Amino acid sequence: MRSKLFQERPETARTDSERWVRIFPDKGEGYVLYDALEERMLGRILVDQNDNWIYDGTLLTLEEQEDLAAFITGSRKEMDDLILGL
What we know:
3 helices
């Protein structure tokens, strides 16, 4: 698991559905998700030592959950780099 998402700083990620989400490291094993445009909490993504994740919430689609989990675990950057390298 990434160590507290880039040294405990909040980060912003965009899902493929064009939703911008602020990601805040929490005090446990997860990350709080917040939609600043709609001013509401979207839930949390919990990640274990093996980069397995689970979404704790009801507001995101499966695709949005996967986008955010990939951003948190770093696999999104790996896929983007792979695509650029083709």
